[in-house]
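EI: anyone free to look at a 695-residue chain?
SC: sure, send it
EI:
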Amino acid sequence: MIRFCPYKNGDRLLDLLAASSDAAPLSIDRLIERLGLARRSVLYLMKNVNASLAAHGIPAIANRKGRGYYLTDAARAALAACEDAPAACDPLAAPQALRLPLKDLAREERDLLFRYIVLTEPGVSLQAFMDIFHAARNTILLELRRLADAPCSIHLVTTPHGRVIAEDELAQRQWLMEHFDTILAVLERCATLAPLADLPALLQSYETMMQSRLTDDSRHIMLHFLAWYDHRLAAGRRLASFPAAADERPELVEWARAFLARHAIDAPAEVHYLCSIMHLHAYASVERKDALYDRLHAFAAALGARFESLSGLALDAGPGGDLTDRLTVHLLSAYHRLQNGIRYRNPMLADIRQEYRSLFNLTKMTVQSQERSLGVTFSDDEIALIATYFGGAFLKQGELPQKDILVVCSSGIGTSQFLLMQLRARYPRLHFTGPLSVSDCRAMALEDADLILTTTQRSFFDKAPCPVILVPPLPTQREWDELHGRLLALGFAVNRALRENVQDIIDIVSDYARIEDMEGLIRSLNAYIYRKSHHAPAAQAAVGDDLLKYVTYLRTADAAPAPGQPLWEIELRRACDALLRGRFITQGYVDRIIRLLATYGDYMVLGKGFLLAHAKSKDGVLASSASVTLFDAPFPMESGKEIRCIICLAPQNQTDHMAFLARLLQRLNDADWCERFFAVRSQQALESFLWQDDA
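SC: here you go
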């Protein structure tokens, strides 16, 4: 790929034209199609590219009238020579040589580049900014005024010799370290960066010495940051002082001295600084266990234990657990960032806060309860990163909870845990966090909670933005019934089957009578059915025994499908129709299965003519169920695989379909059973085979 032109899409244009010739030029319509630009934009781009070519003495884009555009042999040869030639300058060391149109940059990128250019090459003039960003004087002045008003740890000031950074050397380096990954990504869009020739070997020697391995991203960032740091030292920019870390290893000090000796530097401040920054980026693995590792390992185990206590989820996060080890490796770099005042900017923070609110809040509460032992304070950016390690615990036990109930207790530990244990046993679909003290609860962002259950005085929560329910530490049956009614009234999914029964009754009543008070009737029916089901002594059948709701024998559709609709989609919709009519699933669940098959192929095909049609419970499962549909003749999937039977599986959670699925797979591995199954030729015979003879 050509890397030559500073204009957006310029190199893409040259790449396209490089494959053209006088005999086979590219028409303007073809260029519009390949570049995805309007006609006017393509012509304007060619004008700018020709100007850039002329500035380097390269022949312009040629035009064969009425046929199209191409590059001459001389132009292609000159471009190839430019590609082979070393860069005239390194934008890491001399960013004033950059040519990057301002309009091609997002606002954050513009702000970072303005500051980076001045930080790296002090004394930047207004004209230099105009040349770098291909912008008019007034545009650059407007950008600089906006930068002056924007909050930042470093500031641009104007001097007779151009613009410089006001803050000291250490503040400038810290700012750059915090933003270097974003700056590096922008620089690599417009130039090919190459680290200094000896840096890869030096970084490898660091990893060998430390018996650790950096992640690929960390190694890439550190190679280029060390290149920038090397240029900085060569320019004579030094730190006046920098403290040595308490756990600074002698061998790391020797490595840092060897690095600095390349510039004949033996300044203790720079040695200690280099030792500190080498720990700031993530490790993939750590073999050598020192005192700091042991300390962080104990901290990670304490985090896991506290998270389990608050959430009620099993993490396998004990001292020997894999999660504890992985979290310890992560904490090594996080700890050094916090110790050195380097802020980590987590690009996932907003998404984690919004999409996984309960997970984030639980993690924040967990970390804040333990961070004093390390003597550091974790930012939300760091906490969101730790949350990703705990997120797997939620996923193992089903969907991440969307509603969070805080349990706040003033009673003893044993009584509090017993209350929480009962709540989790009675309402496994709800997510309870606790037990919390009042001070724990006050330290949280209560606007993220959906409900507070407390054994303390409600006056502590007069200003809580969510409902607060007072519960005794050891509720009686009547008090449990009252709590259940309140949860129903607040819309919590306390019992999906109960809610379905109520809706069925409502549908029947509404066919024959006018309902004056719908909400009142729903509350009364909820309370009645709950009492009947909750106090009924009869044992419930296992879900796996009665998951199969319908068996159906169908003739393969003879009618031609609608334009663009494959036959398998018609048959799949027919196979799901019984569960849909029985209100076990929604139409959205069927549509989701079809989209999955259309997108990812026939990965639901089990082989031997069976298709297991399924999606996630959140896609539209109203009650756990399954159906079996046998067709009299096979029909093909997109890949050509033929299907005779569709099993529509609609699980409500991660466990209640396991018995059914295990039995199904056992049958499919029985060749004799499959042969007898496919020999069935009627609805009655199918019912007899599956529900009687095969019981």
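EI: The radius of gyration is 34 Å.
SC: 👍
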